[in-house]
Amino acid sequence: MKTSTDLLVVGSGILGLATAFRAHRQGRTVRVVDAAARPVGASIQNFGHACFTGQADVIQDVAASAREGWLDAARAAGFWAAESGTHIPAATETEARVLEEFAEHRGSDQVTLLTREQVARAVGHPELHAHSGAHLPRDMRVNPREAAPALARWLASEGVEFTWRTRVFTVADGVARTSRGEIHAAEIVVCPGVQVDQMFPEIAERHGVRACTLVMSLIERPAPIPADLALLTGTSLARYDGFTAMPSAAALGEELAQRDPELVACKANLMATAIPGGVLVGDSHAYDVSPEPFVEEGLGDLLLDRAAGYLGIERPVVKQRWLGCYADSAATNLVLERPDPRTTVVVVTSGIGMTLSFGIAELALSGGSVPGF
Fold this sequence. Notes:
Layout: E1 3-10, H1 14-25, E2 30-33, H2 42-45, E3 49-50, H3 60-77, E4 81-82, E5 86-90, H4 93-106, E6 112-114, H5 116-122, E7 132-136, E8 140-142, H6 144-157, E9 161-163, E10 168-172, E11 175-178, E12 181-190, H7 196-199, H8 201-207, E13 210-219, E14 230-232, H9 234-237, H10 241-244, H11 249-259, H12 261-265, E15 271-275, E16 278-282, E17 286-288, H13 297-311, E18 318-328, E19 334-340, E20 343-348, H14 353-366
Parallel strand pairs: 1-2, 1-12, 2-9, 12-20
Antiparallel strand pairs: 3-8, 4-8, 5-7, 6-7, 10-11, 11-12, 13-16, 13-17, 13-18, 14-15, 15-16, 19-20
Helix pairs in contact: 1-6, 1-14, 3-6, 3-14
C-alpha cells in the first residue's frame, strides 16, 4: 500500500482527531491511521471536562483556541457540548482564599465568586457545608464517550480517510511504515499518547514519559443533581497550575494533608461531572512505565464517599468502574518535538489533553511551540 496525502495523523485520540479537524478546515487532504478499530483510549475514559480556566496563565491563549475548536467541532459533528462552566465549593477558609486570589488575578469574566447558598444550590445539595464557592463560566463539558467517535464519523463523512487496525512502526521524512505497507504524506503529525515509546523511545526517555492510571466510576444521577453538573474541589485547587500559582496554594496543600490524608495519599483530584448516562466520579493518580491493570476497590469507594458528601448522595449507585490511563511526565505537561522537517510528535503528558486538544493541534500544524511548558 503506497498512498500519498497532504497530512497523515497517527493516532485517533482526541488530539489526533483535533489535528485532523483543523487540517481539514484548512482544506488539506487528511488521513488518520490507528492500531485500534475506533477511539477507545484515554479520550473516552475521562471526564469530558474542559477546564480551560484552571490552566496556567502561560497557556491561556492555547486554551482559548481549544475552546473555539471544541465549539466549532461540536457544531460541525453534531455532538453534545455544554457551556455550563465549573462550580467549585470552598470547603474551608483556605480554599476560599485561593478562589478569591484567583478571581482577583483573572477577573470577573473568568471567575464569579459565590456564597455558600449559591454554590450549594448550583451543585444540587442545598445543605452542603461550604465556606463559599466560585463559578468558572468559560469551562465546557462534552460526553467523552460520544465526542471522539462522533468527530471521527463526521471527518470520515467529509472525506478524511481512516485506516483502522493498522500499527505504525516508524515515521520519518514523510513516510510512515505500517503493518499494511508505507503511507506517504507531505507532513506527518504523530499523536501516540502513552505509546510514544514504541515509535520514538528516545523522546519518551528524554522527557520521562510514563503512564498515569486513574480509578474512576460512573454512578446514577439522582434527581436533585443538575444535568449540567461540573464540580471541582479543594484537591483540584491544589493540582491545576492556574490555582497552584496563587499565594495561598501552599497553605492549602498543607491543610489538605492534615484534613484528608487518604485523598492526598492517592494523589486525588476529586471531581464529578454529569453526562447523559449519569455522573462521572474520580479520580486517583498512580504512575508507572508499565502499570498493572487492577482497580483497587478501596480507592473507588474512597472517591465515591467524598464525592457523595459534596453532592448529598446517601448511597451512590455504581453503574461502571474502570482504570483510566494517559501519558504523564514529571518534567513537562506537553511534549512537542519535530525530529525532522516533515514530522511532528505531540504528546500531552498530564490530564489536560481533552481540555487543550484543539489548541495544541493548532500549534502542531502551525509550527508553534508552547511557551513555559
